[in-house]
Every structure is written in C-alpha cells, then in structure tokens.
C-alpha cells in the first residue's frame, strides 16, 4: 500500500504547521519539513519542540533562505527530499505541499488512489510550445541569467536583465534537455525522486543552468521527470486543486467551499484561508475518517470561471478587420431568433420554415453539430465560424440562393448581434423569453459544465440564483442594446400578443403569425 512522505516548505505560522503535521502523520504517513532560514528562530524552535518526538516527522538537514522566483526554493526542496528519502525508507510517494494546503480526501482514499496506477503526478508541458505562461516573461526566463529577486530587488533584477538583453548575452539550454513547465505541486514515486537526486549530483551543467533561471520551481522538476521517466508513467496533472484569478493570484477557499472541494478529483486543495476555521476543522477531521464515499463532479474550475465572469461585459462591439471586408449584402435580410431554451427556438424555427419557405439554420455559432453545407472548411469548427462570421453568412446566402435567411443565436452572443446589425444588410431580431424552473436550470448547469453528476444539492442550491440572474442579465443586455427591428415573444403573453410580434418580425399576415404562435408544445420542456 502507498505510504506518503509529505514535503512541506513553509516560513510562518508554526501552530498551523504543527496541526497539519499531526493530522497527516496520524494515519501512518510521514512528513519532512523545510522551515525557511529567514524565519524567526523562536518559531523554528517551537516546531522542533512540538514535533521532534514524532517518529513520522523530520526536518531538512540544511535550511535555506528562500525567495519567491529564486533557485533557493528548488534547493530547499532538494534538501528536504534528501532528508525524507533517508529518514523514511518505506515511503512510496513524495507529495509537495505548502502550509496553505489541506487534504480534501481521506488518507484511505488517497492511498487507494495512488495504488491504482504506478505513475508520477506532475504537470509537465513543453515550455516553448505550450500556452502555460499567460503573461510576462517567457523565453527570457531561460536564455538570460537571473541572480536577483524580482520582488525584493526590482532595480537589480530588471537592470541586470536589460544589460544582458542590450548586449545580447543570451545562453544556450543544455543540448539534451527539453525544458518543461507546470505547477510546483506534484506527487512523485520513490524511484523518480531517487533518480532526480542522482541526476542533480551528476549533471552540474543542468544544475548551474536552472540555478540562474527565473521561477525554476515551475521548470526544474517538471523537466527532469520528463527526462528520466517514460511518458506512459507520467500523469500530466497535479493532485492539488488550485485556481488562479485573472491577475495570476491563487484563489482562496473559505468555510462555504467544503462541499465544492470534496467533489473535485484531487487529493488536496490550496489555498485555504487562515480565517476559515470551520473549514479547517472539518477537513482536519476528514483525513483520518474511514469508509467515506466521495461523489466526484469536478466542476470547480468551470464554476469559478463562470462566477467570476458575471458582471464583466467584456464585449467587443467593433468588427475585426477581416469581418469588415465581407458584407452580407445590402439587399439581403438576416432574421435572428434568440432564446436560451434552444429547443423552443428550434420548434418555432421549424414552423416558420414550413409557413414561409425561408431557409433556416439552427444554432450554428453555438452547436458544432449544426448541419451545414460544405463551404470549403470555414464551417468545420465553431471557432472558424465565429471568426469569419460575415464571410460564412454571405456564403450561406449564396448557397441557398436567397436574400432572406433565418438563424438562431444564444442570448449570450451579444457581440454577434451587434456585428450583424452593423452590417449593410437588413437585420431583424426576435427574442423569445421563457420561464425557467429549477429543474431546467440544474439541467443547464450540467450541460455547460457548471455541475457534474454528483454535485452536492447544497452547491446547486447556491448556484441556481446566480444562473437565473445571469440569464436575466443576458436578456437585459439585449434590451438595452437599442437594436432596431427588435421584437419579443413571451411565454407569459397571450397568443394574440405574440402573433403581433411574429407578424412584424416575419413581415407576414396576422393569420400566418398566429399559426407560428400556436406551434404545438412550443414552450414545453
């Protein structure tokens, strides 16, 4: 059975570290601690006094003064690994932790999880080809030498960097090394750690190279694992659940995140707020529990992205340059149905097609599988359709040999509506406003990845008002956009009122519009 040696790098809050060490070692696992050499001496003494008698806890033999983005973090990790390998000969896995991490599964679950596959768990993506780095330096992290701390010695850090850059003082990466990048929160098997320690002793050139790179804790272990271990034995993921804000800062979890954390497919979570005492207490009891069943829904990342984006319009109203070059045609008429319940819009669209003989296309910018003719490849993906929206629509008008075409759009596609209204063609919009039951919203959450099969009811209950408000906000944005030739059909309205809106939208008689309004089971779920 798996036995985990936790590698903990920390620099403050000795009381919390003591509690963490006692929790994680109470079930038979062990821990090696590196306490920053910059930290207060009395805090380190408090740690030693509390934990020296625990046979499952050890301390790095050599402590290092650590700084963010520096090689010192990797050096401290290597020192702690060396101590752990020597002190815990029965440890099968070495799991990198911080003082802000807490287990979100039981020890029983964690051991069974690691036993299922003989693999290393580490994010490891190609440094140059991947999009792992979102902002800031990329290649310059490696090809220039970085000897100063970017946070505490900014002038020296950027001054040294600019001098090297102006003089062209770049350097080569070791020829047999393909640099990788990923999260520093990994879980590695014993033989992998032993191979890394051996290589660090034998390859001084590799050590010198990484020692002067910037943020090497995101590249050093990630690169060496790929160099030493067959690809089929590497699971390219972290087992620690963490989220980052748009500004690159780690998201903090609080008391009301307990159910969300337990339903994620991870063993630990980071960062837990120091003030989340209730959450810490509940998670602390969890690790030693037995026979706990976890329903994994794994919606956390999608849910966070969804919730943090609410209230940000972020819409682009000006057309891109390639779109301005392709007008639909001044003589053409584009009719748009927009409805959050796609099946309702599709029912009405079918009835309109039958009564008016107008070519119709369903949610072509929302559903990849929408049937479309072969237009030379521009129709193959949603990304291509959206990017070349006007060219695509012009080709569809030409294909159907018509000057009148109807499509469906999701209410969230406000930028597409603005774009089509800004074209020289004649655009009309019919908004279909529906009522939404809790059951429908739950189904919607599942369809878009905000909830999984086993998402706890309490999480869904908190999520529903946000989804309902989000849908209402989309409708309000369409109303506020001031589109001309814009009408609405409403589930609560009478057939006669809806028929008046349909008649104006389609430019048909009231009788024909009434037939559309009376589409069988129009608003049924």
What does this structure look like?
The chain is of the alpha/beta class and 525 residues long. It has 21 helices and 17 strands. It has a five-stranded mixed β-sheet, sandwiched between helices. The longest helix is centred in the last third of the chain and has 24 residues, at 457-480. It starts with a strand and ends in an 8-residue tail after the last helix. Mean pLDDT is 90; it is low at 311-325.
* Rg: 29 Å
Shape: elongated
Number of strands: 17
Task: Please identify the structural class as seen in this structure.
Answer: alpha/beta
Note the main sheet: 5 strands, mixed
Estimate percent helicity. Answer: 40-55%
The average pLDDT score comes to 90
Q: Which regions are unreliable across 5 or more consecutive residues at pLDDT < 50? A: 311-325
Instruction: Give the N-terminus to C-terminus distance in angstroms.
Output: 50 Å
Q: Strand order, main sheet: write it out.
A: 3-2-1-4-9
**Beta-strand fraction estimate:** 5-15%
Number of separate helices: 21
Multimeric organization: single chain
């Amino acid at each position: 059975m798996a036995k985990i040696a936790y590698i903990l790098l920390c620099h403050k809050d000795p009381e919390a570290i003591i509690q963490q060490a006692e929790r994680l070692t109470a079930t038979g696992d062990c821990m090696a601690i590196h306490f920053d050499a910059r930290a207060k001496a009395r805090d380190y003494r408090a740690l030693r006094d509390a934990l020296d008698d625990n046979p499952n806890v050890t301390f790095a033999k050599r402590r290092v003064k650590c700084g963010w983005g520096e090689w010192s973090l990797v050096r401290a990790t290597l020192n702690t690994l060396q101590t752990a390998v020597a002190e815990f000969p029965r440890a099968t896995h070495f799991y990198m932790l911080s003082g802000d991490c807490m287990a979100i599964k039981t020890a029983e679950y964690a051991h069974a999880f690691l036993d299922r596959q003989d693999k290393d768990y580490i994010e490891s993506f190609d440094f140059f080809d991947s999009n792992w780095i979102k902002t800031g330096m990329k290649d310059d992290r490696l090809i220039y030498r970085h000897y100063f701390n970017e946070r505490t010695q900014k002038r020296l850090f950027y001054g040294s960097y600019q001098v090297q850059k102006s003089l062209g003082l770049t350097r080569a990466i070791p020829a047999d090394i393909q640099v990788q990048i990923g999260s520093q929160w990994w879980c590695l098997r014993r033989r992998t750690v032993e191979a890394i320690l051996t290589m660090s002793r034998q390859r001084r050139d590799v050590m010198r190279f990484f020692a002067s790179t910037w943020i090497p804790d995101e590249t050093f272990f990630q690169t060496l694992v790929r160099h030493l271990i067959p690809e089929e034995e590497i699971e390219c993921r972290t087992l620690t659940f963490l989220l980052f804000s748009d500004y690159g800062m780690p998201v903090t979890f609080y008391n009301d995140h307990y159910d969300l954390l337990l339903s994620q497919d991870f063993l630990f979570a980071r960062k837990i707020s120091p003030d989340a005492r209730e959450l810490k207490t509940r998670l602390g009891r969890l690790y030693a529990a037995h026979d706990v069943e976890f329903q994994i829904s794994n919606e956390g990342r999608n849910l966070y992205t969804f919730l943090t984006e609410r209230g940000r319009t972020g819409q682009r109203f000006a057309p891109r340059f390639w779109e301005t070059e392709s007008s639909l045609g001044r003589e053409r008429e584009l009719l748009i149905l927009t409805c959050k319940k796609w099946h309702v819009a599709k029912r009405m669209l079918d009835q309109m097609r039958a009564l008016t003989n107008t070519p119709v296309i369903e949610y072509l910018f929302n559903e990849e599988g929408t049937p479309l003719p072969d237009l030379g490849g521009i129709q193959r993906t949603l990304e291509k359709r959206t990017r070349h929206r006007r060219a695509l629509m012009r080709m569809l008008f030409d294909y159907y040999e018509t000057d009148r075409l109807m499509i469906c759009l999701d209410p969230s596609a406000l930028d597409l509506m603005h774009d089509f209204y800004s074209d020289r063609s004649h655009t009309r919009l019919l908004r279909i406003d529906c009522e939404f039951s809790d059951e429908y919203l739950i189904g919607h959450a599942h369809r878009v990845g905000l909830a999984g099969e086993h998402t706890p009811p309490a999480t869904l209950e908190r999520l529903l008002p946000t989804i309902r408000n989000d849908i209402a906000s989309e409708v309000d944005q369409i109303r506020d956009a001031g589109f001309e030739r814009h009408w609405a059909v409403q589930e609560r309205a009478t057939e006669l009122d809806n028929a008046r809106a349909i008649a104006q939208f389609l430019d048909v008689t009231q009788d024909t519009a009434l037939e559309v309004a009376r589409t069988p089971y129009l608003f049924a779920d």
